[in-house]
Amino acid sequence: MKNFTVPTRDEVSENNQAIFDNLNKGLGFVPNLYAYFAKSETALGDYLALQNRKSSLKAKEREVINLVVSQVNGCRYCQSAHTALGKMNGFSDDQILEIRGGSASFDAKLDALARFTKSVAENRGRADEAAVSAFLEAGYDEGNLVDVVVVIGDKIISNYIHNLTQFEIDFPVAPELETVEA
């Protein structure tokens, strides 16, 4: 397999260098995933615009989606990055592992979201009726449904990029799940 490399600031376009500078200011570093997007002239800016769009979902809800989808797609990079972000959003290590498995027994609404997300991701958008009903009964609406699918799409993009390239994970590596709950 080809050895894919993450570009440095000097190896990307002037436009992407400016984005690297903003990322450095905001995060203190440029995550390898974002740097890899800069191999394309427009992908990094486009991806960040998608990721930072306004949403009806709270940050904690988006992290549930990110963790579930990254687990479904087997992306170690995103599992690791979103474990760190999940902790920043108030989830414990045990809660993060449960979410990655597709449930959240500690919060009924987040549980419905996790189960719905897992069903959507595993079934390529054809979620089972019970998961859809539980999602809507938990208080989510059709606008939330659209926003969940947008976040799933965002995460699929990054999962696929890392799964194809396997560049170095620059976050503390998330533990493997021993069992994945249905």
Overview in brief:
With 182 residues, the chain is mainly α.
Give the helix/strand layout.
Elements: H1 14-27, H2 32-37, H3 43-51, H4 59-72, H5 76-88, H6 93-100, H7 108-122, H8 129-137, H9 142-165
How would you describe this structure to a colleague?
The chain folds into two domains: 9-51, no CATH class; 59-165, AhpD-like (Up-down Bundle), CATH 1.20.1290.10. The protein has nine helices and no strands. Helix 4 (59-72) runs antiparallel to helix 5 (76-88), helix 4 packs parallel to helix 7 and helix 4 (59-72) crosses helix 9. With 182 residues, it is mostly helical.
Helix-and-strand structural type: mainly alpha
List the secondary-structure elements in sequence, H or E: HHHHHHHHH
**The number of domains:** 2
Q: Helix count, per DSSP?
A: 9
Biggest sheet overview: none
Number of strands: 0
CA(first)-CA(last) distance = 33 Å
Q: Judging from the principal axes of the Cα atoms, what is the shape? A: globular
What is the CATH topology assignment of the largest domain? Answer: AhpD-like
**CATH architecture call of the largest domain:** Up-down Bundle
Task: Let me know the CATH homologous superfamily of the largest domain.
Answer: AhpD-like
**Portion of residues in helices?**
55-70%
State the CATH class of the largest domain: Mainly Alpha
What is the beta-strand fraction?
under 5%
Using only CA atoms, what is the Rg? 17 Å
